[in-house]
Amino acid sequence: MRIQGETAAGIFDSIRDQVQARVIEPGQALPPVRELAVALGVNRNTVAAAYKRLVSAGIAITQGRHGTSIRPAQGPGEQEGSLPGSPLTDLASGNPATAWLPDMARVCRAVAAVPRLYGEPTLNADLADSARAWLDDDPPAGYALDLCHGAVDAVERLLAAWLAPGDKVAVEDPCFLGSLNTLRHVGLVPVGVPVDEEGLRPEALVDSLAQGVRAVICTPRAHNPTGASFSPARAKALRRVLADFPQALLIEDDHFGPLSATPYRSLIAPATAHWALVRTLSKCHGPDLRLAVVASDAETSRRLRLRLAPGNVWVSHVLQDMAHVLLSSPEDSRRVGEAREDYAQRRRTLADALRAQGIASWSRGDGLNVWVPLPVAGRDVAERLARLGWLVRVADSFCVDTPVQAIRVTVAELAPARAARFARDLRACLDALQAAA
To answer: Which GO terms of the molecular function aspect are on file (predicted)?
Structure first.
């Protein structure tokens, strides 16, 4: 490493060039500010400004008293979804049941073949009407409405609208994989806020906000992976916390939406300056539809629209037409209601089967998954379950700051008889591991 430069810009360019040439490797520590300033014969503020620019550009990360280092190489991270070709019964995917997804051929036949050109409004008028009805009165009055390419895309764009690389973002711990991967990809720092069966723990949220967190991403109901949903008392307590930090961007990811058996309880307080409610069609109408509705305050919407301009990047009008057909169809509303009841029953069935085997789970929640805390390492349990034909997701993938021993079990297509067998097999695995300990 041979850093040169007499100005902040010159030092920045020298380090960036060496990173790109792999002379300075990912994860490598940069010299302390004072030491490099002496070596270059410049003021410490000059070096500090160069380092700050490296962090803002996503090239470096700050580690407090441990100094500044080049950002470690990031892979794509573990992803949600099924494992094609696996001989195991897949209880790890997080996917909805295909039987409850709509007949897209029927939807396509109902779409009017109207060509759109560059410069058209980014939001179809018909979809705007059906989306507002779909959102009901959940967002605060006077909200602005926008579209994104799914919930993960919406969260990334919202964060980019307000934050810079290196900023801290409070997330649930354990956390949805898509949110974790997004934060790491764009150079933001996740700060884990532990959850229990009622959602985020208020005292932990206070601690994270006191650390200088600039945004909070939360799931009001059907939290993935745990299924936790805000109780009325918990939502009230969390709103009081956020009211003391009105400048923190609040993003509510209501990914399960109308499939949820739990009421939507928002944390958006009157004092909250910037907020967004993201509701996606992925779980109720299929992940491949790639569309999420975003309700937000006016300034957040203005910034979001700069990144979704006509003729630049917008959600396909054909997809919007399809979404309008689905959201305005009584037949599809009935299907979603039946799916809601089915998923809730499958969660109850597995929770009851586990309880019969003396295994506790987070059964008060909602969603497609059941969270099962364990007395032993989750990976050891997952390996033994795989030998018995089951594929589950281990808690390690979702943890931010605090390691947790647990597995996530997707129940969307788990029949009652197989739920009972899975519970028996899990009991056998736990007994064998505890006996060997």
So the answer is: DNA binding; DNA-binding transcription factor activity; pyridoxal phosphate binding
What distances in angstroms separate CA 36 from CA 11, 18, 51, 69, 134, one per listed residue?
10, 16, 11, 14, 57
CA distance linking residue 286 with residue 259, whole number of Å: 12
Bridge partners of 292?
148, 280
Q: What gap in Å lies between CA 275 and CA 408, rounded to an integer?
A: 30
Strand 249-253 and strand 275-280: the pairing is: parallel
* Per-residue pLDDT reduced to its tens digit, 349-383: 999 999 999 999 998 889 999 999 999 999 999 99
Q: Which residues of 278-317 are buried (b: 16+ CB within 10 A; e: fewer)?
A: bbbbbbbbbbebbbbbbbbbeebbebbbeebeeeeebbeb
Q: 406 and 381 in contact (C-beta within 8 Å)?
A: no
Give pTM, 2 decimals.
0.86
Distance of alpha carbon 76 from alpha carbon 344, whole angstroms: 32
Tell me which DSSP letter residue 137 carries: T
Q: Which of 380, 325, 328, 151 is nearest to 252 (CA)?
A: 151
Helix axis angle, 44-56 relative to 8-20, nearest 10°? Answer: 50
Are 100 and 335 within 8 A, CB to CB? yes
Where do the domains of the chain lie, and which CATH numbers do they carry? 8-70 (1.10.10.10), 89-97+332-436 (3.90.1150.10), 105-328 (3.40.640.10)
pLDDT digits (tens, 9 = 90+) for 164-213: 877 899 999 999 988 988 888 888 889 999 999 999 999 999 999 998 99
**H helix count then E strand count, the chain:** 15, 15
